[in-house]
């Protein structure tokens, strides 16, 4: 039996090439970053809805502390709502995409949670 979709409710925007949201390679497909969510278009019985996806914690995208101060954080930048970096769900938390890498604010530094492929 397939697991039910975790869908984004009340979604009135169609994602696809040129929709204005950052496409991100996620496994064998492309998702779209929209307001801190990874949306994946999914059609069932002729109707499209948007699944909520999360970048999985893996060897490529770990979620641990690496005690590195990344360049953006070294300059005093603080990641969070309203900063100029896209928020993306990763495991059970939110990271921010900086130069194709996941940054996770952690105390006085940012942990590098690995690469993402922007399409």
TrEMBL record:
It comes from the Bacteria. Residues 1-22 are annotated as: Disordered. This is Threonine dehydratase. It comes from Thiohalocapsa halophila.
């Amino acid at each position: 039996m397939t697991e039910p979709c975790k869908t984004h409710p009340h979604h009135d925007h169609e994602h696809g090439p040129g929709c204005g949201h950052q496409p991100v390679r996620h496994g064998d497909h492309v998702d779209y970053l929209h307001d801190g969510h990874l949306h994946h278009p999914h059609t069932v019985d002729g109707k499209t809805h948007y699944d909520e996806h999360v970048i999985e914690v893996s060897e490529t995208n770990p979620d641990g502390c690496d005690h590195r101060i990344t360049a953006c954080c070294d300059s005093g930048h603080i990641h969070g709502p309203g900063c100029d970096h896209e928020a993306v769900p990763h495991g059970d938390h939110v990271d921010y995409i900086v130069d194709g890498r996941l940054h996770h604010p952690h105390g006085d530094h940012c942990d590098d949670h690995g690469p993402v492929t922007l399409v």
